[in-house]
Design brief:
Layout (H helix, E strand, L loop, with lengths): L18 E6 L2 E6 L10 H15 L6 E6 L4 E3 L4 H10 L3 H18 L4 E5 L2 E3 L1 H4 L6 E4 L4 E3 L13 H6 L5 H8 L5 H7 L4 E2 L5 H7 L5 H8 L8 H4 L1 H8 L4 H10 L3 H10 L4 H16 L3 H15 L3 H12 L17 H6 L16
Parallel strand pairs: 2-3, 3-5, 4-6, 5-7, 6-8, 7-9
Antiparallel strand pairs: 1-2
Helix pairs in contact: 1-3, 2-16, 3-15, 8-9, 11-12, 12-13, 14-15
C-alpha cells in the first residue's frame, strides 16, 4: 500500500494518541480515542484532527475521510467540561482559545470537499455534534442519541448547533436547543442532523467497503430508508405552536396550557434549566435564522461562549451536573422573570475583540 500521509503526521501533542489516524486504502480514518471519557474533545484533539485534514485535503490517494469513536458508548460526549470549569473558575483564557480552534474546525468540516463520513453511533453531544453534523455524509444507527444539552449546565448551544437547529423544520430545533433533549436516528434525520441510517450490525462491513468503494455505492448497499417516525414527528403540532412564542416565559405558558401531558412535562423540564441560558439560547436561535452562513453563526456563538465564561451559571451548572453531581444547581438569577434584556444582550457584545473568529483570509 505504501507509506501514507497519515503515517507521517507528527505527534504535536503528548496526547496525540487521543485521536488515532490511519489509512485504509482510499479512506483515511480519524478515531476519537478517549473511551473512558466518552471521547470528550480536548484542545489537542481538535488540533490533531485539523492537522490530519490539512495533510489529506490535497492528497489524491485520500478520497474519503471517516470519523468514528473508540469504545461502544458513542462517538463523542462533547468538550472536556471539567477543563472548562477549572478555566472559568480561574478566569483563564484556555476555553476561549479552545473554542476558537474548535469552531474554525467545525467550519472547515462543513466546507470539506471530499466525502466526510461521520459515524454518529451511540452518544453524540455538544462538541461531538460539531465535528460530525457539519459533515456531508452523516450516518446514524439505532443506538444514536444526539443532543445539544448546554442549557442544563448554564451554557448555550455552540459548535454551529444554533445554525443547524435554527434550520430544522418548524420549531423542532428551538425545542431541542432549549430542552437539551436527545433524539434517536429518525428524529436526527428529521431535523437535519443526519443523512443516512445504517444498522449498527452493518457498520463494520460498510466502513470496510469504504477502503475500496465510493461512498455512494457503499451507502446504496447499507443505508436503510425509511425509518418509522420518531417522537418529534408525533409532537410536531404542539411544539410548533408553543415554541413560536417570542419569549421563554410565553413558551412555558403555552406548554402548560396545551392540555398535552408531554407538553406539560416539557415545561417542567425547562424550568430546571438555567434561566439565563434559556433566554440567551432563544435569542441566539432567532438571530441565527437571520444569519446567512455558518461562519457568521459560529462568530456569534463564539461571542456568546466567551461571555458565558464570566457568567456564574456555567461554573454552577458544571459543578452540579459533573463535579459534585448533586443535580441541584443554584442559578443566578433563579427565575426567568429576573433575567433582563440587558443581561441577554451582554452575551452578544463584541468587547475584547471576541468577534474576530474568522479573518478575511478564512
Amino acid at each position: 500500500m505504501g507509506r501514507s500521509t497519515a503515517d507521517t503526521l507528527p505527534d504535536t501533542a503528548p496526547d496525540a494518541e487521543d485521536v488515532l489516524v490511519a489509512r485504509r486504502g482510499r479512506a483515511a480514518h480519524l478515531t476519537l480515542n478517549r473511551p473512558r471519557a466518552l471521547n470528550a474533545l480536548t484542545h489537542a484533539m481538535v488540533r490533531r484532527i485539523d492537522e490530519a485534514l490539512t495533510a489529506w485535503e490535497h492528497d489524491p490517494e485520500v478520497e474519503t475521510v471517516v470519523l468514528t469513536g473508540a469504545g461502544d458508548r458513542g462517538l463523542c460526549a462533547g468538550g472536556d467540561i471539567r477543563a472548562i470549569y477549572e478555566d472559568a473558575r480561574a478566569g483563564g483564557t484556555a476555553s476561549a482559545d479552545f473554542w476558537r480552534d474548535e469552531y474554525r474546525l467545525n467550519a472547515r468540516i462543513a466546507r470539506w470537499s471530499k466525502p466526510y463520513v461521520a459515524v454518529m453511533d451511540g452518544i453524540v453531544m455538544g462538541g461531538g455534534v460539531g465535528i460530525s453534523a457539519h459533515g456531508n455524509v452523516r450516518v446514524v444507527t439505532e443506538h444514536s442519541r444526539v443532543a445539544m444539552p448546554e442549557t442544563g449546565i448554564g451554557f448555550v448551544p455552540d459548535v454551529g448547533g444554533t445554525y443547524l437547529l435554527s434550520r430544522a423544520p418548524g420549531e423542532l430545533g428551538t425545542h431541542l436547543a432549549l430542552t437539551g433533549t436527545s433524539v434517536g436516528a429518525a428524529d436526527a434525520l428529521l431535523v437535519g442532523l443526519a443523512d443516512h441510517y445504517v444498522p449498527s450490525a452493518e457498520l463494520d462491513v460498510f466502513l470496510a467497503e469504504l477502503s475500496h468503494t465510493p461512498v455512494r455505492e457503499a451507502l446504496a448497499r447499507h443505508a436503510h430508508q425509511p425509518l418509522p417516525p420518531g417522537e418529534l414527528a408525533a409532537h410536531r403540532d404542539w411544539i410548533d405552536h408553543c415554541y413560536s412564542a417570542d419569549t421563554v416565559e410565553e413558551i412555558v405558558d403555552r406548554l402548560q396550557a396545551t392540555g398535552v401531558q408531554e407538553a406539560k412535562e416539557t415545561a417542567e423540564t425547562l424550568l430546571t434549566k438555567s434561566p439565563t441560558s434559556l433566554k440567551v439560547t432563544l435569542a441566539a436561535m432567532r438571530r441565527a435564522r437571520e444569519l446567512a452562513t455558518l461562519e457568521e453563526v459560529l462568530a456569534q456563538e463564539y461571542r456568546v461562549s466567551c461571555a458565558a465564561l464570566t457568567s456564574p451559571d456555567l461554573v454552577e451548572g458544571i459543578r452540579a451536573q459533573v463535579i459534585d453531581k448533586d443535580r441541584e444547581p443554584r442559578w443566578t438569577p433563579g427565575v426567568l422573570g429576573e433575567v433582563t434584556e440587558e443581561t441577554v444582550e451582554r452575551f452578544f457584545g463584541t468587547e475584547g475583540g471576541r468577534q474576530a473568529l474568522f479573518t478575511a483570509g478564512g
